Amino acid sequence: MIAKISATENLGGALGYNFKKVRHNEASVLCVNELRECFDGTYRMDKVLADMLALIPEKCRTKKTVFHCSLNPHPDEQLSDETLSQIAKEYMEALGYGKQPYIVFKHNDIAREHIHIVSLRIDGNGKKVNDKFEGKRSKLITDDLERKYNLIPSSKVGEKEVTETPKVDTSKGNIKEQVASVVRMVLKHYRFCSLGELNAILRKYNLAIEEVKTEFRGKKYDGLVYIPTDDKSNNKVSIPIHASDIGRGVGYIAVQNRIQKSKQSIKPLIPAVREKVLHVMRTSPQTEEALRQRLEEQGLRVVIRRNDNGRLYGITFIDDEGGIALNGSRLGKGYVANAFNAYFANPNHNPFLDETLYGNPSLRSEQTNVSLPMQPNIEESDNIVDELIEELVGEPFAPTGNDDWKEAAWQRKLRRQNKIRLKRRKR
């Protein structure tokens, strides 16, 4: 069981998020503590909000007064409402919120049932509840609860989530729940540095992502939609689902934050992936199918993108176990899509066998960190120009959320600017 805790100052937002799901029959109120119910035995947001606001002093030094937590059992767990209620109560008591007002919601909007708890971080005297080492204490508490209720340990959840997450199948219904399950798993497990790389990951699960830009009352907004696709040609098979309809943590800002964090954590992993690709290419696979099979033997999955003319304009390598996706250009200048397009056009000429271009990995010492020719250091491979070289050819197929066409346009603009600068220098 995994606990995710957040602190906020927006009590109305935390309650509104959960009560909105209650209105749409995607959640239910499981239990409450120190809160009044209505005459009909139900709970309304305005009543709960008023009760909690009344306990917050007017001059409160604590800014983030709201405690919002989700407890997530493994998808295979089949827990009764009584058991979930008892787990929530014991968790809050052990964490120091046993005497606080709180409300527990059971969410069933996705295949994995889980609970959300909204409470206050200050008591009736305005004193802040002790939150020192809250994350570590929470982990110890959930570990104890797992043992007490014989739950699947959280240490096994991540691996099982990746291997057991099914593809989106529109014929089964509950499309939004299927999409939410896939997206949350992918954003949690994988690291990527662009929407194009994210799209390459999602393709395995019959899903695509598109960026949308809207304007409301003169203000521009960026958003994302998730689109179910078919199993073969990646064509759309259902209406797009807006990220805001899925819930928190899957929208534009969350994805951009994931991209920024990935750019730092992914750098040390690039050389290992590059070595695997180079090893496979030196076996001279004659076809794309042979390339896929030999990469799979190395633990890599490859996604190849072609335009309407059949030109290979994008290639992404994915390590599903390690949770990383890398465009060919991130591996180095010699691994851009143009290099693979040229090779498959003439497999008899394999540039990856050229020692002067790609070096000899067997001659490198494990203690050295010398970059090979055509395999620049990680900082250089992260440069936008290197990323865009593989997008230089033709017009890509109709967009399905892939940002390659934008990158190609940007690269052409850079080339035009460079030509202008060269002409001015000659004068």
Give the termini separation.
69 Å
Order of adjacent strands in the largest pleated sheet: 1-3-5-4-2
Number of separate helices: 17
Radius of gyration: 26 Å
The residue fraction in helices comes out at 40-55%
**Roughly what fraction of the amino acids lie in strands?**
15-25%
Mean pLDDT: 81
Largest sheet: 5 strands, antiparallel
Sum up the overall morphology in one term: elongated
Spans of 5+ residues with little confidence (pLDDT < 50)? 362-403
Category from helices, strands and their pairing: alpha+beta
Pfam family, one: Relaxase
Domain MobA/VirD2-like nuclease: 28-151
Protein name: Relaxase/mobilization nuclease-like protein
Q: How is this structure best described in words?
A:
The chain has 427 residues and is of the alpha+beta class. The protein folds into three domains: 2-159, BirA Bifunctional Protein, domain 2; 171-265, no CATH class; 267-426, no CATH class. Helices cover 41% and strands 17% of the residues. The chain has helices spanning 11-23, 45-53, 81-95, 134-148, 157-164, 175-189, 195-203, 243-246, 252-265, 270-281, 288-297, 328-331, 337-345, 355-358, 378-381, 384-388, 404-426, and strands at 2-8, 27-33, 66-72, 102-107, 114-120, 207-216, 219-228, 241-242, 301-306, 312-319, 324-327. The chain has a five-stranded antiparallel β-sheet with strand order 1-3-5-4-2, sandwiched between helices. A hairpin with a 6-residue loop joins strand 4 and strand 5 (114-120). Helix 1 packs antiparallel against helix 2 and helix 3 (81-95) packs antiparallel against helix 4. It is elongated, with a radius of gyration of 26 Å. It starts with a strand and ends with a helix. 32% of the residues are buried. Residues 28-151 form the MobA/VirD2-like nuclease domain. This is Relaxase/mobilization nuclease-like protein.
